[in-house]
Amino acid sequence: MHSRLQHILFGALAGLFLWALHEGNFVNGPLGPRGTFAITVAGMVFFGTGLAMLGEIGARKAGFAALLIAIPTTVLGWWAAGSFDPAQDLLGQMDFGVLALFVLATVPMPFAMVIAQQGRRAWADYPALFTHAWNIVVRYGAAWLFLAVVWLLLYLSSQLLQSVGIDWLRQLFRLNWLALGLSGAVLGLGLAVVTELEEMISPFLLLRLLRLLLPVVMVVVVVFLLGLILNAGAIDAVGVSHATTLIVISMAAIVLVSVAVEREDFEAVVAPILRISTLGLALILPVLAAVSAWSTWRTVFEFGWTPARVAQGGLIVLIAGYGIGYAAAVLRGHGWMARVRRVNIAMALGLLALAVAWLTPLINANAIATKSQIARYESGLTEPARLPLYAMAQSWGKPGLDGIATLRAHAANDPVLAKALASVRVAGEDVPPTSHDALLADLRMHIAQPPGAAPIPKALLQVIERDSNVPLSDLCAWRASAEPSCALVMADLRPDLPGDEAVMVRDDGTYAPMRFYYLNNGQWVNGGAMRAVPGGDGAIGLVIAAIAKGQFKIVPSGISGVQAGGQILVPSLR
Questions:
Q1: How far apart are CA 564 and CA 333, in angstroms?
Q2: What percent of the chain clears pLDDT 70, i.e. is strictly above it?
Q3: Is 509 or 176 the better-scoring residue by pLDDT?
Q4: How far apart are CA 204 and CA 262, in angstroms?
Q5: Exposed e or buried b per residue across 36-68, where buried means at least 16 C-beta atoms within 10 angstroms of its C-beta
């Protein structure tokens, strides 16, 4: 009961801390955005790690360990925030920096718990590290599920009472301090109960289930590599989607190999198919890292560096470290599982080092990306219309703003660049309003078209603008990855209609990202949403990139209709 009270109090304090941050409006106070961000990081890391360790090592040790983790994480977060534009949302600019902070907060926890229980000499006790790491995952998952159930029950109770004219419960929980404080307390209670029932709610059921995925992932990876060989190394020209997918699959393989070797040899996989799959993934992982690096490099060679691609490069280096370590452990023969476990400990420290480097000038992704894009422009490799100007101004921090200033200096001798920069807005900059015609011209410039295509008619752009619910300046703004988010093809798709029709593809995350436009009595009309015929991979970004390169064909859709009584009946696509 004492432990439950500690968890409840600690969780309630965490909730009230969040409420104070929300209500305090510290951003506009003396602390400013950077100071407020540092305090947010400090509180989140301290309470989050403290709650995770409290049930295992006690309140005093958990508080001390949480403090030791929170201090360097906060300092590095504050340092990293200094390289971003304080006039804009810091979280929106940091992206992978937030992930680095998460790594710095979570990876040390198992080590801290082992040291607190067994002393500093036992810091590399792999069975204990493995158990603590997966216990934290399962406990937090169960506690968050418990919190969701509690709030669902409270919501239903409020609805029930409202049906008889009693509204006090709904009004009560509209108080933010009470809602957040209660949420923290409930989360703490859930963690306490899950910790008490460690034998009943353990991670080992989850680990046994994850093992079953070993053959599936192994088969998929082998088939992919065989297909790559049979296609003579041919892979999508864009490469971004493939690189990201390969990185995720590689990380999944690392997790599955770690799960397969467990804490000790006697707990590891025994079934032949699972053991063979584990060995196979361990040996194939360096190949996956190499293919990921090749795919990412092709994209960088064609489009230049962006912060996301720098992050991909860092993750690929990490995956290569795991891959080389795993393959070497397996190839040395007997005792390979013990060596894999030692690799995991070494790479956990490597992950921490990468996170520290990302938050310091050692890896300044925004500066690397900005220098790359400017160099490509200056060497003529990238046209002004294809520069990620919006991302540089809004998401790449101070280096991006310096890059915009450099490009504006170049724009004095480059009218095309000057036109591209006309719609770029920097926070705090006094820029005269842009005319509607100029915004339409910018929209035309941002929409990818096949090489040699005729300019998009102004009337069609006006219809596209009218049918969207996005500000014109943001409608087809290039993504932070320096790739277009819209593409348009004009062709004679419907013989029953006069002139050419238009297909607009927009990567906006909607269910129907493709629109059809046609001429009716000389006026452009929205013909409604289009659907892709089953058989593609569904990646809209790849469709847009292919259109921009002219890698498309006008082909029959393969759908026939029934002509009867003056009507043609066409089946709908699923």
A1: 73
A2: 88
A3: 176
A4: 10
A5: bbbbbbbbbbbbbbbbbbbbbbebebbbbbbee
The pTM (predicted TM-score) of the whole model is 0.76
Would you state the structure tokens that stand for residue 255, as one six-digit string? 């997790």
Give the separation between CA 373 and CA 391, rounded to whole angstroms: 11
Note whether 182 and 15 are within 8 A (CB): yes
Compute the distance between CA of residue 52 and CA of residue 139 in angstroms, rounded to an integer.
8
**DSSP letters spanning 182-193:** HHHHHHHHHHHH
Q: Is 559 helix (H, G, I), strand (E, B) or coil?
A: coil
Q: What's the rounded Cα separation, in Å, for the pair 147 and 192?
A: 13
Q: How is the chain split among helix, strand and coil, in percent rounded to 5?
A: 65, 5, 30
For residues 496 and 494, give the distance between their C-alpha atoms in angstroms, rounded to a whole number: 5
pLDDT in the model for residue 286: 95
| Neighbour order of strands in the sheet with 514-520 | 486-491, 501-506, 514-520, 523-530
Query: Cα separation of 83 and 397, whole Å?
Result: 6
CA pair distance 46, 70, nearest whole angstrom: 5
Question: In Å, what is the CA distance from 513 to each residue of 8, 504, 534?
Answer: 46, 8, 15
Distance between CA atoms of residues 414 and 563, nearest Å: 57
Question: Terminus-to-terminus CA distance in the chain, angstroms?
Answer: 56
Residues 6+ apart with CB under 8 A from 399: 83, 364, 366, 367, 369, 370, 371
- What are the beta bridge partners of residue 534? 536
Residue 138 · residue 119 · CB < 8 Å? no
C-beta atoms surrounding 375 within 10 Å: 13
Those residues with Cβ within 8 angstroms of residue 540's Cβ, 6 or more apart along the chain or in another chain: 505, 506, 507, 513
Residue 302: per-residue pLDDT: 85
Question: Tokens 């339409």, residue?
Answer: 440
Return the amino acid letter for 499: G
DSSP 8-state class, residue 432: P
Does the pLDDT at position 474 exceed 80?
Answer: no
| pLDDT for res 480 | 57
Q: How far apart are CA 435 and CA 297, in angstroms?
A: 40
Residue 122 burial (CB count, 10 A): 13
Beta bridge partners of 486: 506
Contacts of residue 57, defined as CB under 8 A and 6 or more positions apart, other chains included, come to 65, 113, 116, 117
Phi (first) and psi of residue 501, to 5 degrees: -105, 170
Predicted pLDDT of residue 241: 52
Q: Which two tokens stand for residue 7?
A: 């968890």
DSSP codes of every residue in 234-264: ---SS-HHHHHHHHHHHHHHHHHHHHHH-SS
- What Rg, from alpha-carbon coordinates, does the chain have? 28
192 or 561, which is more confident: 192
Q: How confident is the model at residue 545 (pLDDT cuts 50, 70, 90)?
A: confident
Of 254, 279, 280, the C-alpha closest to 334 is 279
